[in-house]
Write a structure and sequence with these properties.
Helix content: over 70%
Strand content: under 5%
Distance between the termini: 33 Å
Order of helices and strands: HHHHHHHHHHHHHHHHHHHHH
Radius of gyration: 23 Å
Structural class: mainly alpha
Length: 494
Amino acid sequence: MRWTLLGAVTSLVVQVPYAAAMSRLLEPSDFGLVGLGIFMIRFVSYFAQGGLNSAVTQRAVLEARDVRAAVAFGIAMGVGVYAVAWAITPLAVQVVNGPPKLIAVCRGLGLTFVISAIGSTATGLLRRAMRYRTIALLEFGSYLFGYCGLGVTSAVMGCGVWSLVYASVAQCALMALGSCALAGHDLRPLFDLRAMKEVGLFGVKVSFVGFLEFLTLGGDNVLIGRYAGMEMLGYYNRAWLLAALPLHQVAMSLNKVLLPAFSSIQAQGARLKSAYTDSVAMTTLLFLPMGAVIAASSTNAIHVVLGADWAIAAHLVPPLAVVGTLNVITYFPAAVAEATGRVWQKAAIESLHLITLLAGAGVVMLSGAGILGLVTAVLVSRLVQHAAYIVWIGRVLPGSLRQLAIAYAQSSAVALVIWSAVTTVGHLTAGTVPALAALAAQLITAALLGVLVLVYGRTLTGMRVAHQRALIPSVLGSPRHPRKELTNAVHRKE
């Protein structure tokens, strides 16, 4: 968990100056075009990868024959699906009412899921072996040198929207090559239909659920791009970058750890329940306040990072910050479903999520509520999805709802206090100091309150769990009384 979070946070630190630079080198329509292109190629990317990453990780017994069959399955699915995608791209662009240039952009971005499909077996083996230090270094290196390095260089050279395409392909290629080199598995594909079927069956189920998740996560891009235009989609894309994407990336990083961890104890009900409730308690206490800070400082953050021309995006950040927070927390019950083989139950919840999103978007378009209405529809659909997972997890892990309710209540109270304080500082500094100084004051306020929670919040469930699992150094905890601690230890032993 430490290595995965470190990798996500480090990438986020690099991502902020990268976003600032690219937002000044490119036009909003460039980001809108690539955002819509990414949505379209992801329409088939889940099937191209065949869920091999999860299949290799979750499988109870994995032999050398299975690994070679997985390599063959990845090659076949990646190349085959890309060929189909190449052929249908012009029709797909017409469906979403995109410009002709989008065809070439989609075909270029499509190389990413071919490369990922070929390297997915190696990545799955690294996760199965819990080599998260290696994975974190690979992901950061590929992002820094592939995505940021090539992206900024191409933008400076005047490549325009293609700089974003080159960056995505380069990052994916570096990650796949590094994974294959470090996993040390047999790279020879075994085109045995029976072996490929055994490995790919679970992966196909995971791919189907991933496809449903993709429709809900990316459907907002299509709706906004089609009914609000590429420029407004560009504003939405940048708002998502600052509000929800950092939290979403951390959620994806956590999910990489959760699947192998929960899979290894899927038959131990009590231990699985403890791991799940503890994870949620720590996560809500960390990310609910973080989302509150993002929402409260959105105006100054947009002005400082993206510039004054992106002020429209500031109104979209607060609701998207809530969406991003829900994304993080939802990964935990979703990981339990996948780790325990309950893939179809997960599919049912994601279908409900998608139906709610489409229904909400329909109401918004009929009422003419605009982009803020569409963002609200995204938020409501995410709340429905989360509530469905909570009800479901209460049946799968009996007795967990009470612990979850306590964790949610405590974390929400902390987030509300921090949001109130940061918002107040923002109002006091508005128009009196430069945006950078105002943002700094807000972040310092949030940091000081975070330190207070860290030092004196030991009674909070999330903090107690973090200390028990040694995720926080004891020196940062609240002051202890040695004699009292010794007495408590004796009582626990008795």
